[in-house]
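Quick check before the chapter quiz. The format below is the same one you will see on the exam, so make sure you can read both the input and the output lines.
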Amino acid sequence: MKTRSMEWLFGAIAGVLVLGFAAAFSSVGSGLLAAEKPTAVPAPALDNPLASGPVQTAVLAGGCFWGTQGVFEHVKGVRKVLAGYAGGSKSTAHYDTVSTGTTGHAESIQVQFDPSQVSYGEILRVFFSVAHDPTQLNRQGPDSGTQYRSSIFFADPTQEKIAHAYIDQLQKDHAFSRPIVTRVDPLQGFYPAEAYHQDYLVHNPNSTYIMFNDLPKIENLRRVLPDMYRVEPVLALTASR
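Here is the expected output.
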């Protein structure tokens, strides 16, 4: 997705691969064709307890925001997920500019969640388990560049503490075969992406890019973290509290 032409080129190649292996695999949703394999990581040892309160927000970056938004729209307790940009300035928070890889932005999502139903640590568990591969540096699947980096943008000291503690925990447990490269950075601002990017996965399920890279992640969420999975997604443009 560095450019639209590259995206469609990859899409065409992916389509050939999907069709070619259709006889071997019953469906793309099996997870076997996913660009990033799921990893069943343990729950965070340090976390906020579930408690009633105002809706909270997590900002995460883990590759193309089409897929990460699609995953978190299926997580119980999540109220709304916006695709957007974080890490750079407001003036450069535009898709074509961010795609140059020179703005400091990462394609990100803003996850609004009910803290009585899902904790910040559990949001991070989904992020590390099925939303992306935290061992890939400045890339995810077919997409490369700093705009596709793995990053947690913390909004307060508690989020920062939980994020660092969880990464340390997963590193010590050797949860992944390679080191985690996820950055933990202060949130300076989140800027929603253009309207056509919102709920992209829901509106374009037959896109070869989505079929190959992103739909398997939702199936992985259902299989790996079934207690956190919701069948019907909460959409960015229709969600309400």
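If your answer matched, good. The two ends are 33 Å apart (CA to CA).
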